[in-house]
Amino acid sequence: MLNEKVAALLNTQVNKEFYSAYLYLHFANFYTEQGLSGFANWYQVQAQEERDHAMLMVQYLQNNDAKVTFEAIAKPDAALSENMDPLKAGLAHEQYVTSLIHTIYEAAYEAKDFRTMQFLDWFVKEQGEEETNAADLIKKMELFGTDAKGLYMLDQELAGRVYAAPSLTL
Ligand code: MG
User: Fold this and answer.
1) Of 26, 80, 94, 97, which cross-links 85 as Cys (Cβ 3.0–4.6 Å)?
2) On the CB side of 7, how many CA atoms lie within 13 Å of its CA?
3) How far apart are CA 150 and CA 35, in angstroms?
4) What SS3 string covers 18-46?
5) With contact defined as beta carbons under 8 Å apart, do 113 and 29 qualify?
6) 3-class SS of residue 146
7) Whole-number Å distance between alpha carbons of 120 and 108
8) Is the pLDDT of residue 1 over 90?
9) Closest listed residue to residue 64, CA positions, set 96, 111, 125, 26
10) How far does the centroid of ligand 1 lie from the alpha carbon of residue 114, in Å?
11) 37-90 pLDDT tens trace
């Protein structure tokens, strides 16, 4: 049996990961409206990854006989007007998600729940990558996004992102 607090936090995190997917689809819609289909593609792939994160947590809870409850997914709250806005909101969101993962890790550590700590190790590493990717997008946009030709090239680059299944399997 999982520690009750750890299980509750993981169940809440399932919702947060689905919200992340929803938020990134909101970003993708914004870029589609702007005619930037490469940026839209990048966030559609990101949304698929977030759904994977949620489902990994669902499976982990179920593998450990914990009940999974789906709560309502909140409306994406980011107000978007400039092409840079989703990128900055994305980095801030990933930093927030990192803090949530760390809070669950802390609870698992306190409960001496070594199995959950090991499960979460993948997510700790993943969050490092998510923050780096989000920060890199901001840097590229600052460097190239202010010029129409540069923005076109950047959009072409982001169009090349393809979905890959997560490296963690349960
Ligand atoms: Mg995630």
Assistant:
1) 80
2) 14
3) 15
4) HHHHHHHHHHHHHHHHHCCHHHHHHHHHH
5) no
6) coil
7) 9
8) no
9) 111
10) 21
11) 999 999 999 999 999 999 999 999 999 999 999 999 999 988 999 999 999 999
pLDDT of the residue at 77: 85
Q: How far is the CA of 148 from the centre of ligand 1 (A)?
A: 32
Q: Locate tokens 């107000």: which residue?
A: 79
On average, the pLDDT of the chain sits at 97
- Identify residues whose C-beta is under 5 A from ligand 1, the ion: 17, 50, 53
3-state secondary structure 74-99: CCCCCCCCCCCHHHHHHHHHHHHHHH
Tell me how far the alpha carbon of residue 150 lies from the centroid of ligand 1, in angstroms.
Answer: 29
In this structure, are residues 100 and 107 in contact, taking their beta carbons and an 8 Å threshold? no
DSSP 64: T
Kindly state the tokens that stand for 124.
Answer: 């700790």
> Do residues 73 and 15 lie in contact, with contact meaning Cβ atoms separated by under 8 Å?
yes
> Using one digit for the tens of pLDDT, what is the confidence trace for 22-31?
999 999 999 9
Centre of ligand 1 to C-alpha 147, Å, is 31
Question: Mind listing the pLDDT tens digit for each residue in 121-164?
Answer: 999 999 999 999 999 999 999 999 999 999 999 999 999 999 99
Count CB neighbours of 28 within 10 A: 22
pTM for the full model? 0.96
